[in-house]
Amino acid sequence: MISVVEARDIILSHVRPVGVEKVDLFSALDRVLAEDVEATRNQPPWDNSAMDGYAVRSSDTQTASETTPVVLRIVEHLPAGKRAKQEVQPGQTVHIMTGAPIPSGADSVVRAEDAIRVDDTRVRIVRPVSPGADLRRVGEDMAKGERLLSAGTVLRPAEIGLLASNNRSMVSVYRHPRVAILSTGDEIMDVGSELEDGKIIDSNGYTLPAMVMEAGCEPIRLGISPDTRTDLEKKLREGLMADVILTSGGVSVGEFDFVKAALDALGTTMEFWKVAMTPGRPLAFGRIQDTLAFGLPGNPVASMVTFELFVRPALLKMRGMSRLYRPTLRATLMEDIRKMPGRKQFFRMCLIEREGKLFTLRTGAQGSGILRSMSLADGLAITHEHQELLCTGEEVEIMPLGGALSFWHERSC
Ligand code: AMP
Ligand code: MG
Hints:
The chain has eight helices and 28 strands. It has helices at 4-13, 157-165, 204-214, 229-238, 259-265, 300-318, 371-375, 404-407; strands at 20-24, 37-38, 48-49, 53-56, 70-78, 92-96, 108-111, 115-119, 122-125, 135-136, 147-149, 170-174, 178-184, 188-189, 200-201, 218-225, 244-248, 269-274, 277-278, 282-288, 291-296, 329-333, 337-338, 344-354, 357-362, 379-382, 389-390, 395-400. Adenosine monophosphate (AMP) is lined by residues 183, 185, 187-188, 200, 202-205, 248-250, 252, 254, 297-300.
């Protein structure tokens, strides 16, 4: 048996980022930048007002107070989008709106609430301002020529806004890796079927595409193959147009476990491991031409956990990302947990916050076919191979599952 870390290192050593495409900003959310982007302009393009108020020479306001206001002459009313026609001379001011360029001569802005308008041409300033007050400086957001974003950055709304500010409408990003997904097993039937005796419904054919999408990739459903080598080979051949093939089931040592043989027959350089983990264990991995193949175990939770640990980091690397693992949390155990020594066991846990501290306990039975306890889980507790007992009060490391961080506060379990 090899360890989780060994298996993951081997897998990642075979993975390269997929190709690059240009997309418009509107389609760029969650894509990974494939180019370094330089600021080609200053933002803001010029000093401008951060407030509605009066652009002044700050020296004119030094004696201003409620009882001895300074009266300035308004020489212009300046909306955003226009430049002042004249320079502000001593004793003068320009009535300025937020975002309008600061007129020459002025070095600061008096906020509207610190001024009393007398009429269209006069205003009383009741508080002194210092030079630079309420100015937004040219280039304070981005300065022409500086590195704005680096290749490998995931484009979130803020980065998309930066690219827009930089007047870029198209960006180079890694294309979506395409992942073909095949469920295997004579007993497996699709959702919506008239269920015959002895058959079960294909849940992996739905959880795995969902996990692929959650990892920012494009799923392609190959459907269900019965446990025969010819059917498996035919379906797997269809998957060769994808960047990755994922199968579930048929990788153990059962009499009808033909996935590995079918992959071999297609010319896969195949590695087949028992990984020292629970749930999980049997895992096949290899390369057929330009396609990577993962043979995941069939049990619904085992296929999800092996996806999380082995497939997801590989897909993120293919997308051009450098952070391949979810950040983990630490939480205090609220119960004793006995585990099998010699294996890294992943327990389905819910998280509870009490007085700013994070606590955790199992979500129920941990059998590798029990999807309900996976659904109730906020994350997986990561244990060490050598451990046998985890004790109440001990801190454990939790890997949150997709989306969990946004709603575990509202959950109770
Ligand atoms: P296998 O790895 O093929 O021996 O399957 C292990 C267990 O997972 C068996 O109980 C299967 O019925 C179940 N299983 C396999 N594939 C699926 C699937 N696509 N959806 C739900 N359960 C499955
Ligand atoms: Mg099977």
